[in-house]
């Protein structure tokens, strides 16, 4: 913690030299430093939302000063404050750093009588004359303590149990603001990348599709097909598949351009599954895949994106089961939950080890593929689609002996 007059310079404006021998950097310090970096706070102007929270903390605790301290391995960074100008000080001088490794609320009526703070320069008069001190830790969703929400005064004081709980609640709110800031920034970067990718692939996807559609139409008009009803039906199905693919490309490009906004409509899941199986008919027939669909429910979702999701999951199930040398069996199921729906795709393939089940959702990451071709985009696409619906996706063992991919979609209000 640092106490300074509003216009005074930082105690350590440059490299923040410590007042004692530098402490050794621990693995915990590295984890904390990485967590802090994800929020992009250091060196930026205070966020209005954070300033509002410190003002509320000071008012709640009836003190003139409050601060949000972010503490890395060598310095304390005040990212928002009321009652003084935010600054930077050496970690060795920080009162909050003294309690950071045991992250819980701290309330001290008189810091001069507390062994953790009695010799601190902010208490002794060297820098400040802090008496009353209280702090609540800022703990990320991953469980990393990155700093504190701190209130203090030059007069002795105390907090009621109600005000103590209020300080904890405000600390949670600080972390929520930081998380929202991080997610917003990451989504912005992700959507920028997706829009760029969409522009790059649109030409490559559309040209061969246009040519394919032209050949199908040309073949369908051939007089030789007049006495070949089976070929005529096959061409009709190919034309229908090409039309759906064109619609899918259009919708996906629109999805990329609008930054991930989904268009919720009622979707009959078993009917959607049938269109997916029709699109994958050639692969299913060639592999001898047995497919069971038990999904007679209606969900609220973006039909195009949901079709892409199912198509990726079923195609993966068939591909990896075939590569394992078994006749693929795939089951598409869906049940209604309180407030949403759960969709599952099961297979009898080799399965995915528990240690790999999170990693395979990353872009360009693949599990034990056994020589199966692919870029590792499918499951990453699935996760993006599910997250755009504010849902969840995961992997577990399947009753069929292979992999079960489950998706939970929340009902929209």
UniProtKB/TrEMBL annotation:
Residue ranges annotated for the Histidine kinase domain, each copy included: 200-413
Q: Which UniProt keywords apply?
A: Kinase, Phosphoprotein, Transferase, Two-component regulatory system
Q: Which reaction does it catalyse?
A: ATP + protein L-histidine = ADP + protein N-phospho-L-histidine
Entry-linked InterPro entries: BphY/WalK/GraS-like (IPR050351), GAF (IPR003018), GAF-like_dom_sf (IPR029016), HATPase_C_sf (IPR036890), HATPase_dom (IPR003594), His_kinase_dom (IPR005467), HisK_dim/P_dom (IPR003661), HisK_dim/P_sf (IPR036097)
The name this protein goes by in its record = Sensor-like histidine kinase SenX3
* Annotated stretches, region: Disordered: 1-25
Coiled coil: which residue ranges? none
Query: Is Protease among the key words of this record?
Result: no
């Amino acid at each position: 913690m640092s106490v300074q007059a509003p216009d005074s310079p930082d105690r350590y404006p440059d490299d923040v030299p410590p007042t004692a021998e530098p402490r050794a950097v621990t693995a915990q310090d590295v984890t904390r430093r990485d967590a802090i970096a994800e929020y992009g706070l250091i060196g930026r102007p205070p966020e209005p939302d954070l300033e509002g929270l410190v003002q509320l903390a000071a008012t709640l605790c009836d003190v003139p000063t409050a601060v949000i301290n972010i503490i890395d391995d060598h310095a304390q960074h005040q990212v928002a404050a009321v009652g003084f100008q935010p600054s930077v000080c050496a970690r060795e001088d920080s009162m909050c750093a003294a309690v950071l490794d045991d992250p819980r609320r701290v309330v001290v009526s008189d810091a001069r009588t507390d062994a953790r703070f009695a010799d601190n320069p902010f208490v002794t008069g060297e820098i400040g004359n802090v008496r009353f001190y209280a702090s609540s830790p800022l703990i990320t969703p991953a469980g990393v303590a990155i700093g504190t929400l701190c209130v203090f005064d030059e007069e002795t004081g105390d907090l009621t149990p109600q005000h103590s709980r209020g300080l904890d609640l405000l600390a949670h709110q600080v972390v929520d603001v930081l998380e929202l800031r991080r997610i917003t920034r990451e989504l912005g970067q992700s959507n920028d990348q997706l829009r760029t990718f969409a522009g790059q692939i649109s030409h490559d996807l559309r040209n061969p599709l246009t040519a394919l559609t032209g050949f199908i139409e040309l073949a369908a008009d051939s007089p030789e097909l007049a006495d070949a009803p089976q070929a005529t039906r096959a061409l009709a199905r190919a034309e229908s598949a090409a039309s759906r693919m064109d619609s899918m490309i259009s919708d996906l490009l629109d999805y990329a351009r609008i930054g991930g906004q989904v268009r919720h409509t009622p979707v009959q899941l078993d009917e959607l599954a049938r269109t997916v199986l029709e699109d994958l008919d050639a692969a299913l027939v060639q592999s001898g895949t047995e497919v069971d669909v038990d999904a007679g429910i209606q969900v609220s979702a973006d039909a195009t994106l949901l079709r892409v999701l199912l198509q990726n999951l079923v195609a993966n199930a068939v591909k990896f089961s075939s590569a394992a040398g078994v006749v693929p069996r795939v089951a598409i199921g869906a049940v209604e939950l309180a407030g949403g729906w759960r969709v599952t795709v099961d297979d009898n393939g080799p399965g995915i080890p528990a240690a790999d089940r999170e990693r395979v959702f990353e872009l360009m990451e693949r599990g034990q593929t056994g020589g199966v071709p692919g870029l590792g985009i499918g499951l990453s696409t699935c996760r993006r689609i599910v997250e755009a619906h504010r849902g969840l996706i995961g992997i577990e063992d399947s009753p069929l002996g292979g992999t079960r991919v489950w998706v939970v979609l929340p009902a929209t209000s």
